[in-house]
Amino acid sequence: MAPSKHGVHAAAWSVLLRMAVAVNNGLAQTPQLGWNNWNSLGCDVSEDLLLDTSQKLLDLGLRDVGYNYVVLDDCWSDGRDEDGYLVADSTRFPRGMKFLADAIHEKGMLYGMYSSAGEYTCARYAGSLDHEEHDAKSFASWDVDYVKYDNCYSMGRHGTPKISYDRYDVMAKALNATGRPMLYSLCNWGEDLTHTWGMSIANSWRMSGDIYDSFSRPDILCSCDDPRDPHCIAPGSHCSVLNILNKVAPYTDRGQPGGWNDLDMLEVGQGGMTDEEYKAHFSMWALVKSPLLIGADIRHLPASALTILNNPAIIAINQDPAGRSAHRIRINLDVKKDKYGVGEAHVWSGPLANGDQVVAFLNAADEDLKMEAGLDEIFVDDGPEGSAPQVKLSWEVYDLWGGRMSEKTAQKLVDASEAGVGIAEAQKAADWYNTTELSYADGLQAQDSRLFGTKIGEVKAQGTLKATVKRHSVEVFRLRSKGGETKRYSVHREL
């Protein structure tokens, strides 16, 4: 059985895809992609918002590139009826939740809803604590596909991993008992070491306090003095991109097919970061295998943000069938600090199912940097001190942002979606990747060029990868073996 140019056996690839591991419900074999209203709109929710957003996901091509969950967050309910079942706000949702789910399903997308493992939700609506069976039955009867489950007003039922696990496990069991598969997304902010138990009951689990629209600014509301401390998992809010990355770095390996570290929703398009910072934010969430949920109001999405969110070469890393996160292999604190005293540089590396390797140079310094990493460091997980067999191979280098859609093309898509005319023509001209026609796994096997970026050079055996990285930005590369057999990775997590 001869390998392809890049050492991928078609038969071996097929075996990998059949070995998918589920947590307990068969969902989220790769991290979920979609949209959630909270970061941009908070409690300003309605039936019209969800329907208009679903249509925008279609018109802008975001559903086709993979964003297929439409998730309604807090503030949708109007308490409970006399039998103890949740009631939707009839002013905001006059035709009810089943109608909304049906309408979203008709557009080829999936519908998600929100509750909290507390007496109240975070916005002080009725919570699900001690009402789990009722609420799970309601979600199932409405044909919900995704449940985001928050952590406010827990009535003191937290403080140890076992107590928190038990509180969230009640809803896990109730959802499973309905017989309807619903993706279960924990939002308990990393409290009580969620990364040690979340994978036992959920498809994703938040591992930090809430994100806000900043790349690196410290904020007292985001707990802990040093986010690089692996014990710094206290909840909070106003957590920057860099803060969250530093918190997750020690346990990126806890994610696996069926269950993922959730770094919180994407801020791309909100307006608080530069284009380079948003590019870095999106790239690193993808590499760490976080769920990718758009948090911006896409009814008013800037064209520049669209060119970040629809990059199939980056999304393909997130959706790689092996489900193995990249992890940080080096951090350099001896760089120029900004006015807040923040400045560092990272090298991240991770294996991909077909034997390729993804490498990211993240520059969080207050200046442009020349960065590099030798093959001995890039492949350190496969053997220390340069003993990994991959070090003896030469590698083609592909820039995963090299094929980024032009802002001019993206603007045509935005204009067409706003006018409601010329959408099909604009979509055809954009030539983006369409997962409804070819999944990322199949596209990788078929060597679809849109998933591999732009070839920019090669690294010789025993050599070094080098790049100049702009301030608060990232360079992301896919390394492809230039001849020679490379290690393929099973989608089973190696224990």
TrEMBL record:
PROSITE patterns: ALPHA_GALACTOSIDASE (PS00512). Residues 1-28 form the signal peptide. Pfam families: Melibiase_2 (PF16499), Melibiase_C (PF17801). The keyword rRNA processing does not apply. The keyword Secreted applies. Its EC number is 3.2.1.22. CDD domains: GH27. GO terms for molecular function: alpha-galactosidase activity. Keywords: Disulfide bond, Glycoprotein, Glycosidase, Hydrolase, Secreted, Signal. GO terms for cellular component: extracellular region. It is found in: Secreted. One of its GO terms (biological process) is melibiose catabolic process. Its main location: secreted. Residues 343-408 form the Alpha galactosidase C-terminal domain. It catalyses: Hydrolysis of terminal, non-reducing alpha-D-galactose residues in alpha-D-galactosides, including galactose oligosaccharides, galactomannans and galactolipids. Hydrolyzes a variety of simple alpha-D-galactoside as well as more complex molecules such as oligosaccharides and polysaccharides. Belongs to the glycosyl hydrolase 27 family. This is Alpha-galactosidase.
